[in-house]
Amino acid sequence: MASKPFKLQLVETFATLMTAAFGMVAALAWNEAIKTLIGKFFTGGDQLVPMIVYAIIVTIVAVICILFIARTLGKLKDSLAEEEEKK
User: Which of 35, 22, 24 is nearest to 62 (CA)?
Assistant: First the structure.
């Protein structure tokens, strides 16, 4: 079995790192929203709605970016497979 081309390994690694980074940003956004929610029940904070809206927006952006990364990686894999078949 042939090893993966360096270009594919590099792109897969970057895709994994970028996906993890977007996941972390979404997690941090939800963390802040949950902290604000808890704070509202105990201190009457007024930041709840903005934090939840922020968390939702960040999550949507992260999902879109992750899907874009996955689609791009899939196209690259298909392209490399076609190049290998031509050889």
Answer: 22
Alpha carbon dihedral 64, 67, 73, 78, in 10-degree steps, equals: -130
Mean pLDDT score, 70-85:
87
Report whether 29 contacts 58 (CB < 8 A): yes
| Backbone dihedral region for residue 23 (phi beyond 0: left; psi -120 to 50: alpha; all else: beta) | alpha
Q: What is the pTM of this model?
A: 0.67
Question: What pLDDT score was predicted for residue 44?
Answer: 61
pLDDT, average across residues 54-82: 89
Residue 51 burial by Cβ neighbours in a 10 Å radius (0-12, 13-18, 19+): buried
Task: Say which amino acid occupies 69.
Answer: I
Whether 54 and 83 have beta carbons less than 8 Å apart is answered as: no
